[in-house]
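Hi F.,

I've been meaning to write this up properly since the lab meeting, where we talked about keeping a consistent format for the predictions we share between groups. The idea is simple: the sequence comes first, exactly as it goes in, then the structure tokens exactly as they come out, then a line or two of notes. No screenshots and no reformatting. I'm using this chain as the first example so we have something concrete to point to.
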Amino acid sequence: MASAAHGLSTNEALSGIFGSISITSWICLLIPQLITNYKTKSADGLSMLFLAVWLFGDVTNLSGALVTGLAPTATVLAAYFCVSDLILISQCVYYNTINARAARRRAQSSATDISEDEPLLRRQRTGSSTTAVALPGSQRRRSSGREINPIKRVITGEDETPSGSAWLHNTLGITAIWVVGTAGWFLSYRAGAFDQPEADVPEDLSPDTPVAILGMVMGYTSAICYLCARIPQIIKNYREKSCEGLALLFFMLSLTGNLTYGLSVFSYSQEPQYIIKAIPWLLGSLGTIVEDCIIFYQFRIYSQKSEHAIDDSEEAS
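Output, unedited:
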């Protein structure tokens, strides 16, 4: 590799650019889902098991960074992931608790009304109750505390972006991430962030030491958590035949961060020994891309079913 004094090599520059884009994606990752939950006043679309396993993966990732003595930026970023996960989980627990209490109050109120009016309106109330149960997704929309235009929440789970332009809006957002990440790397390079000579690797971080082995174990544990985390969310979407309440941009940022991270690793060096050491983190990043693509497919097929259901209801009315 070229020394820093003589400028960066092409591989180092590409690795730095991809790494900067990946960091930008991860910093912004949870913001779309936090906003979606806040606007809908609900977190029913998210699987709590998905978030819990993801948090455990980030905790082991941070532990591995601390044990192996990774760069301070990598450690700080891992800590940021854990804090962000806790914020999202706290928001979900809050809305789930509030909506569960509201649902119980409504159920108790309905039961009281039915018991009082049952002798006179038994047949009518029985019919209306059956109809209410048959409406798909009605419980989730009621738990959010307000009605959401189904045409506008078809793909994103949000109520501002029409379904026809949702992918366009989110693609523009991803493009902005690439631009900001690339610009951030060039600005840091111009500021001399890469002028420091490379530090020697401490002897206690050689591959055969207990510390290095423990770091690799934590790395593989984190990778397994990342790979398994999305499975509960995929199953939840499949069972409900809906991606309502999920922010599409959340998963697009995840795919962007994982893809650019993998490209950053491969661009830096293609030496077999280096790639072998990076296998745990590559598995955790590139492996989840397949699962993200499954979720994208679910967004597409379930949004089409929602559009057909909307058209049928409009024709019937």
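Notes:
The chain has one domain: 8-316.
Residues 1-6, 123-162, 198-205 have pLDDT under 50 and may be disordered.

If this format works for you, I'll send the rest the same way.

G.
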